[in-house]
TrEMBL record:
Protein name: Alpha/beta hydrolase
The family this protein is said to belong to: Belongs to the GMC oxidoreductase family.
Keyword set, alphabetical order: FAD, Flavoprotein, Hydrolase, Oxidoreductase
Domain of life: Bacteria
Molecular-function annotations in GO: hydrolase activity
Coiled-coil intervals: none
UniProt-listed InterPro entries: Cholesterol_Oxidase
Organism: Paenarthrobacter aromaticivorans
Required cofactor names: FAD
């Protein structure tokens, strides 16, 4: 039996990060009995928790519910469902993810939990775990990038040279400028994107590629998306602060994540010593990813292997890119089984 979204019961639960920033958790239940522990889904930058419930035949949430998991989706400070602010990944690592894990464990009574993390939800969550801030998380499935961001050459040029220009005019960059202008600068950016991206008729799809990668499109293959999802994504992307792009630019130059700001809870160098976590990691990457190259996950897997050989795993998935891993039309048969298998490897039934 496959659970459909119509059968979901959704509860949005507000809570506070450790610096008092408002966040929320989306708790999704279904008629299927929960026989396994909690699993938290963590989205990327400038999107929201609903990223994991696109209008496809079967979502990752459907599959997890059917498999008996207690599903929680996190809206951390990068979520477009929250008021925009100038966040950094280090802020999320220290303040958001530990608070979210604590909230889920308190709500469920579980002693441990698992996580499926994507993109900048993955970098920030991995930073938190490696720093020893998430000891209750025992299995982490990471998509696209974690500790070693490697991007196409053109993306690096955009981060190095466009970010300072954008910062002069606005604290944010937003794919939503495709359908709502916020002054002459945003209209100029939209005009530039229209002139240089002619891969489809969806202006937000084009703006996403301009913002996050180097392809046409950059975050998915059009042939992997059905028409409904291609239209749906127009409302799923919005503000991303310049502070994030500056932090990511420094990390790309260093070859590994470099925390921004003053956060003594985080190491100065995330790869200088062994990860301070017992969580088993499963690293996933689409081989066609043009946002973060598959080498990103390969490097982090190699780093983990160096310190604890044989514990973690790496899956490089042909035919997929960055986000179609989650909302591709056939992801239910191509990528979701990998995620579910990894979550179940160390899972014991709760009853």
């Amino acid at each position: 039996m496959i659970i459909t979204r119509a059968e979901h019961r959704t509860e949005v639960i507000p809570f506070r990060a450790r610096d008092n920033t408002p966040l929320s958790l989306v708790h999704v239940t279904s008629p299927v009995e929960v026989t396994k522990g909690p699993v938290m889904l963590v989205h990327g930058s400038g999107v929201r928790a609903e990223l994991f419930r696109p209008p496809v035949r079967t979502t990752i949430v459907d599959v997890l519910l059917e498999d008996g998991w207690d599903v929680w989706m996190l809206n951390w400070r990068a979520s477009i469902d929250l008021d925009p602010l100038s966040w950094t990944l280090a802020d999320a690592a220290v303040y958001d993810h530990p608070a979210a894990v604590e909230h889920v464990l308190n709500a469920t009574g579980a002693e441990t939990m698992k996580a499926v993390i994507h993109c900048q939800g993955s970098t920030s969550f991995t930073m938190s775990a490696v720093a020893g801030l998430l000891p209750q998380v025992d299995t982490i499935v990471s998509n696209a990038v974690s500790l070693h961001p490697v991007v196409p050459a053109f993306s690096r040029l955009k981060i190095d040279y466009l970010t300072p220009v954008v910062k002069v005019f606005t604290p944010y960059l937003s794919p939503a400028w495709g359908y709502k202008s916020q002054g002459y600068f945003t209209r100029a950016i939209r005009g530039l994107v229209k002139a240089t991206h002619r891969e489809c008729d969806n202006i937000v799809c084009k703006m996403v590629s301009f913002t996050y990668g180097s392809g046409r499109p950059a975050l998915w293959a059009h042939e992997n998306l059905d028409d409904a999802t291609h239209q749906w994504l127009s409302g799923e992307f919005a503000e991303v602060p310049v502070t994030f792009f500056e932090e990511m630019g420094r990390s790309i130059k260093a070859g590994h994540m470099v925390a921004a700001g003053n956060h003594p809870e985080l190491p100065g160098n995330f790869v200088a010593e062994a990860p301070q976590t017992d969580a088993r990691f499963a690293f996933i990457a689409g081989l066609d990813n043009l946002c973060f190259l598959p080498e990103s996950q390969q490097r982090t897997f190699d780093f983990f292997q160096k310190h604890r050989p044989g514990k973690d795993s790496l899956h490089l998935i042909p035919g997929y890119g960055h986000l179609d891993v989650f909302f591709g039309e056939h992801a239910w048969q191509d990528t979701f089984p990998v995620i579910v298998e990894e979550l179940n490897k160390t899972q014991e039934p709760t009853s």
